[in-house]
Amino acid sequence: MQSARSLTDIQRLREEDRDVTPVYDLAQYGYELRFYVHDNNVPTAMTPAVSAAQFQVVLHPFGGTNRNALLPNDVYMSNADSGAIAHAGNNTAYNTNFTLHSHATGTIAHMAIIIGFIENVSAWTSGSVTMTDVVFTITTHRASGEVLDRFVFQTAPTTAFSALGATGAQIFKCFEHVAPDVRLRTIDNAPINLNITINETVSGTNTRQVGIMPTFPLWGSPASVSKPWTVPQIIMNIKPGLNAVDFIGRG
């Protein structure tokens, strides 16, 4: 009889379990959000071909060591060897803001930036042009115009580019992470701003374009061979705080 009662209890508990909705706590919540960095500046065809350009890559540097980053960035295959530049105009410095709005009140637990930067000299008479480094400024807000948190970091080619003393291009493919110990607070529906500034050294008389590539190769060569290309993008994970649920049920 004891065995029969135990079996009945087990069946009853299983039936009750079906009425319980499984949930996760906030510590288990997270989703990688991908934002494409679409520049509203007008692209210009790039000269020369990608395979002929100075090409450098910085991959996920931690402690001065380059590591291949395994993140869900979009990739497609192409044998193209030319690209384009989204820039603000000939002989114009690149300093551009991108803005999105937070999906929740909480903390940016992770942010990766994947962008291809380019310095192109389309006409040259004298002097030289060099892309030196790129500065990212990430700013979160309590409300529009009211700063909450700000983080600034710089990335540069592992080996300095050789100055362009003729027509040509420098391509700097960057795969950067916000430092793991940095946590930026966000407010639901408040703006998150990313400023990108490309620093250069310029002298003499020449015509240059500097900006980001709407699509760019992960490898600079070999020419006319199918290779992976990607698009400029930000991958972000925002962990919501307890007060993030306040908006539920609002009309």
Describe the structure.
With 251 residues, the chain is mainly beta. It has one domain (34-239). 6% of the residues lie in helices and 48% in strands. It has one helix at residues 2-17; strands at 32-36, 43-45, 54-59, 75-78, 84-87, 94-101, 106-124, 129-143, 146-155, 168-177, 184-186, 191-202, 206-212, 216-217, 227-230, 233-240. The strands form three sheets. Strands 1, 2, 3, 5, 7, 10, 11, 13 and 16 form a nine-stranded mixed beta sheet that branches. The protein has a four-stranded antiparallel beta sheet with strand order 6-12-8-9, with no helix packed on it. A three-stranded antiparallel beta sheet has the order 4-15-14, with no helix packed on it. The chain is globular, with a radius of gyration of 24 Å.
Number of strands: 16
User: What class, by secondary structure content?
Assistant: mainly beta
Low-pLDDT windows of residues: 20-24
Tell me the number of structural domains: 1
Question: What's the helical proportion of residues?
Answer: under 10%
The end-to-end span amounts to: 57 Å
> What's the tally of helices?
1
